Write the structure tokens for this entry.
Amino acid sequence: MIPAAFVPLDQMPLTPEGEPARGTLGHPPVPAPGAGPGGQRTPTQAGMTYLWSRLLKKDQVGLDDDFFALGGNSLLAAEMLARTRVMFGIGADYVRPLTRCLLRDPTLRGFAQATQDARAGRLAADGDQGRVDFAREADLAPVRVRAHPRCPRPDWRRPLEILLTGATGFLGAHLLSELLASTSARVWCLVRARDAAHARQRIADAAARYDLGGGAGLAADGGAAGLAACGGGPGDRVVPLPGDLAAPRLGLSPGEFRELARSTDIIYHAGAIVNFIYPYEELRAANVTGTREVIRLAGLVRAIPVHYVSTTAVLAGLGVAGVREATEDTPLAHADRLRVGYVETKFVAEELLRNAGRAGLPVTIYRPMDIVGSRRTGAWSTATEMCALIRFITDTGLAPDIDLPLDFVPADTCAAAIRQISCAEGAAGRTYHLAGPGYPMLGYLVERLRRHGFEVSQVPFGIWVSELLRYAAHDPSHPMAPFLPLFVDRDQGLTTAEMYLEHVFPHYTRSNTEQALRGSGIAFPPVDDGLLDRNIGHLIATGYLTAPRDGRPRAHAR
């Protein structure tokens, strides 16, 4: 049963025993059902109006107002979906369908109807999402690759001009730092931004966020020195390039696009929208069409080498199909079993690049798994599922007893490996698995958390998921709440999370990587006490994890 109206209180009156003092609530004035823009509202619409108003900090929300136009973003959408599930008593298996409905019709009227359909069991598990033809998506036509005979060939060994996408992301920021430190090239950074000044600020902010400011010409405080290093004078090596991966020509003017095609020596394509709940269609423009535009730029004039950062998660479909080992040369297959839109876009982008390689474009693909903080600082991106999992474990004192591999690679080592391979091996169409020589399981991480003073018990997976459901209902803003569907949506008896357990996910080799890095002095470190402690310590030092008192975990302060 849905309340007909929602009345906010500053706080709930309590009895001395801590129970709600119901008799003291009185009868505050209840808003009329038709109050506000849009006239008469159903109970579901009234409840959704209240929720959106609180989350988006709006006094009034009309039935035809757009969630994202009102200031909503992917993070607020995830919290809104989690709160909708609790507020209206909807099962966790409806989070993905409701997400699709929100993206398709982000008005309050449309989403309230989808919510009502979910409550009544009328919302299909896959909404009205059609099947994606992945082979057709990877068709390169009408993009062509040409090398103009009058243009000099790109000097990828000693580049003067580099194009980098994703410079404001975790790996991209480290890759920018590595390129500045190891080459003399000017680096053009494609950044989604209003203008060059905004792009410059975003680059500097990313360098500061991951403690990279002092290492490669970007100021650690992200202040004036950092901004000065990001463009503005003839000697600057970082050139902010306002653009958009999801737009034609990468959001650049025709002149800018063609000039880059004429002058760039090498392209590092690390940019993408990362979201593990959004469907393929929502991520396609930036992650697939954006890659197609990068290929078009590279092949427009002189066949510029493209180095693409993918993920080993593209192998997950092979594991579900029963494949137990994958080399770097194993053909990709079973995209229809990946079940995560982001990973599906990476699968298609890889196939696009292979087709471009067959057409004559020099390409290389790099596949890391879980990228963690640098070996120097341990500064980690807390937007990752792994950080959210660690936070949940320390907040609840419970960890799942599962065979989850900790295939961690430090961001700085990952960036150094990409730079080394790209400048020594070129783009010869190979794939490289960026991984260490071995990995422990989740239990090893649990032991390191205990050494830091957290009391953690390992429990069976089903019990742990039940606790996750309960906790997410109690605290929809918890970092782990957006990842809830990965642990409850099942297909062929497996949740999405279980696809990545050691007994399901294929073992993958790294022969190409070992050969390419031999003698370079670059090696992926083992996942040992030092690596884990450095990353855990940074999470505690920054306040993402609350240090336990007397060896006991406590709730995270907000």
Remarks:
- The two ends are 32 Å apart (CA to CA).
- Residues 151 and 302 are 6 Å apart (CA to CA).
